[in-house]
Amino acid sequence: MAAPLTLLLVVAVTIRAALYRSSLAEVIAERVEVVSPITAWKRVIEGLALLDLGVSPYSGDVFHETPLVIYLFHFLVDYAEITFMLADVISAIALYLAVKEYNKQVVRKKQKFALEADRYPQDCLELIRSPKEMLYIPLKVAMFYLLNPFTILSCVAKSTCGLNNAPQIITPHCFKISFAVFLCLATYQSIYPLTLCAPAMLYLMQRQYIPVNYRRASFWWFVVQYLFMYLGSLFVLICLSFFLLGSWDYLPSVYGFILSVPDLTPNIGLFWYFFAEMFEHFRLFFLCVFQINVFFYTVPLSIKLKDHPVFLMFMQLAVISIFKSYPTVGDIALYMALLPVWSHLHRFLRNIFLVSCVLLACSVLFPVLWHLWIYAGSANSNFYYAITLLFNVAQILLVSDYFYAFLRREHHLIHGLYLKKKDGSEATLVLK
Amino acid sequence: YILYILIYIPIFVFVLLRKLIKEEGENDFQEELVIRPLHSGDIYASFQFRTLWETDFMRENKVSHYRLFPKSLGQVISKFSVRELHISFTQGYWRTMQWGQPFLPSPPGAELWVWFQDSVTDVDAAWKELTNVLSGIFCASLNFIDSTNTVQPSASFKPLGIVNETDHRFLRYATLPREIVCTENLTPWKKLLPCGSKAGLAVLLKSEKLFHSSFFSQTVHIRPVCQDRECKTTSWELRQTLNVVFDLHTSGQGKREWSLFKMFSRTLTEACPLASSSKIYIDVTDNPQEEYFELSPATPLLSQAVVLGDRRTFSVYDLTQQVTFGTVRSLNLLIRWKSTEGDMLRPLLHAERYVAGYGLQTGEIHTVMYNNHPFRSFPVLLLDSVPWYLRLYIHTLTVTSKGKDNTPSYIHYQPSKDRMRPHLLEMLVQLPPHSVTEVTVQFERALLKWTEYTPDPNHGFYVGSSVISALVPSSVAMDTNITQEQPLFSSFFPCKEESSYFVRVYTEPLLVNLPTPDFSMPYNVICLTCTVVAVGYGSLYNLLTRSFQIEEPNPRLAKKIANFIRRIRGVPLLS
């Protein structure tokens, strides 16, 4: 497996290097779909320039990165391109290894299933995948991530989204609690990966065969251990940032900015136009509603999917990417990279054709309508906003479709594939 | 004896009373009008009114007896502990290349800068109250000055009066480029004069002619000044100036002939009785042998003054002398051109500013400064205050002179905070001789909340003028003696050294368009976005709370009713 992976890495690096050298790099770095006020490279350079001028980068409202990023790029600003390509490569390798690990676990479960095959209906054997089918999935996942145009655009624009994605991807690969540090790093950069705590914990518990039962002491002991590790490293990171720049200014500039959304620069998310047109009286209320919307799917999803932590992680990543305050295409690329893992669900997907058409059309229309609004002046902001709405509806449909397919497959595994009604005719399954 | 008593006691009482009331200090009022014919055929008239008052506004018991100094301004000074106050209202832009340098520069719109005393503890609160009070005094909308357009320059705008120490925490500077000047602002300004608009030069200030001009500016400057060289006594100086440029074609009907009546539709009949000096100066430097224009009525008085680094000759009309008004008891100066020859002295320093780029996403501000001195280079201090919604990227700042990089020796940059304070950029740039220096900086346009746009959002947003302050080398030795009698128009800026004079140049204000949301759509947007979020919520809720079941077909309605009736009758049901 190493050879195809290496070939893939070489191809990906070549594409990125070629684009860096071309004139497209500056054009892509300005696009609002690819960079946001939090992740733009121009703003990182601005922060470093302010630091050189002797002014705190957080005294203005241009720079919203964490102090560790300043520290990192203070040394690496000349090698920025290599840094971002390396981040992409590391993410791809981490994805590859994580999916491979997951596949091993699935095979083990399948073997267990085959042993108890007589307890389960016969016809759902065709739902079980063979190891041969699953052989190429890790490579496909790495390919989906590296060769996804969204990822390439994000890397060429030197958006720090790539740096944010890397720790989020390494997290599922961990089988030691000490890897909570990576999740902590991801949370430190943007607050939303906090919700990935639950799937990470569940995955570790599954690997270490701790039963997920809130009445058992071992469960609580594990949770306490993980949280201690996680919160401890978060605390260490925050104090380290304080000592780097000598002030707490970065807290309102980074986290206050992510949560209170003062900057209404258009992007592919739902927040900007909503708060541009919001009545002042209700602004705080809707801000809280929208922010809570990202976090409150964690508990119900965890309860429903406690036996399938990797799918839970996929769902959480998707929810974060769609509903976060400043999404970019780099965030979308992250959860789309995991789609090949669930390629066996395609027979239960209902809207996949519609969703893929809409996503493709919207991706093409984004730059067109932006040009019409901002440069040609013949459209107005409503056009771009409409495409934003469509894009997000398509993403939501995609995610809920995969969820539906997953749950349906689980149902069929237990109750059999070809179900019949009471009178013997073919049954239809509905959600009731 | 009774006679002696009757004479001496009143005199004694009178002298005693005078000694007691003497605490009010000396009051002095001077008025002046300078008329400078411009090369392009336009004419530039500058009125200066100065009141000097030896008093102390900052002492414990309030000053209550006002004579020549206006009471409203005196109360403002003592209430807000103001050390210096400079306010100007301008309509139009001063075209330096066509008209030369003005005696007192001012940017388009309204400009206010104030130095507070060291005793003020909360400068921001005092500033806010002061702007509101001034807004009432001048009938202007200065209440729009708030923290989003106020800056604290660190090097420009040093005090023009007595300087003790200059901690720039006590300085506030704000401009309102969008402010319009009209009769409403001129009337309260005229009321501040001791003679009002009833006598003296102020009778010429009629708004129907003044506002029909290319350039109109009225200013008020209050500052403490020294009365003698050792500065043992200080007095408060109130200067009111009014600069106006009449256009050859609009006001002059195309004829190169100007008179007081043509410019102001009034003539002068008397000086202000309260003025110690009332003079009119006509600049005749370019006309030594009367070959270009002819001045009538003729006057024997001639005076020379060094103004803006140049020695100029002026014909003087002294309005305190009755002979000036002649037999008709009215003075109507007439300047008639004989030929249109002659060229203008090129100003040594002037500047332009413009926005480059296309589209509503990004742009670039270019400030171009011209140094026209043939062999001397001098440093200039550039002050730029840009509103927060144009996000400047200081790493894109480039300064080039003659095509080469010219690094500023001093940069003070304060980045903006959204909705709280604007950008402040101050730089000290050395301008090489006979060169053009260009300062460029990129910016990004922000999308504002729909309530933050002005009622006409597609007009654009104004960015205040840049201020360029410099000590320009002078070709004539300047006079540094403050006690010598000088005309008012040449003694505004303090002169510290002989070889250079102080110049402040204002660039054009910029008009920048921002992307706008659709203002008719708040309800629609809220509904649609909440619908999308609800689609997400709904589908996930469905999948989380419901489980799969085999669908048993529902019996038809008719069958249902039939079964119901059968159940009542106790008869077996249909299948």
TrEMBL record, chain A:
Keywords assigned by UniProt, alphabetized: Endoplasmic reticulum, GPI-anchor biosynthesis, Membrane, Signal, Transmembrane, Transmembrane helix
Keyword Transmembrane in record: yes
GO cellular component: GPI-anchor transamidase complex
One GO BP annotation of this record: GPI anchor biosynthetic process
Entry superkingdom: Eukaryota
Compartments reported by the entry: Endoplasmic reticulum membrane
Lipid bilayer topology: Multi-pass membrane protein
Signal peptide: 1-25
Pathway membership: Glycolipid biosynthesis; glycosylphosphatidylinositol-anchor biosynthesis
Membrane-spanning parts: 82-99, 135-157, 177-205, 226-248, 254-275, 282-299, 311-339, 351-376, 382-404
Keyword Endoplasmic reticulum among UniProt keywords: yes
Family the UniProt entry places it in: Belongs to the PIGU family.
Name of the protein described by the UniProt record: Phosphatidylinositol glycan anchor biosynthesis, class U
Taxonomy of the source species: Eukaryota, Metazoa, Chordata, Craniata, Vertebrata
From TrEMBL, chain B:
Name recorded for this polypeptide: Phosphatidylinositol glycan anchor biosynthesis class T
Taxonomy of the source species: Eukaryota, Metazoa, Chordata, Craniata, Vertebrata
GO BP terms: attachment of GPI anchor to protein
Entry GO terms, CC: GPI-anchor transamidase complex
Gene that this sequence comes from: PIGT
Sequence intervals crossing the membrane: none
Leader peptide range in chain numbering: none
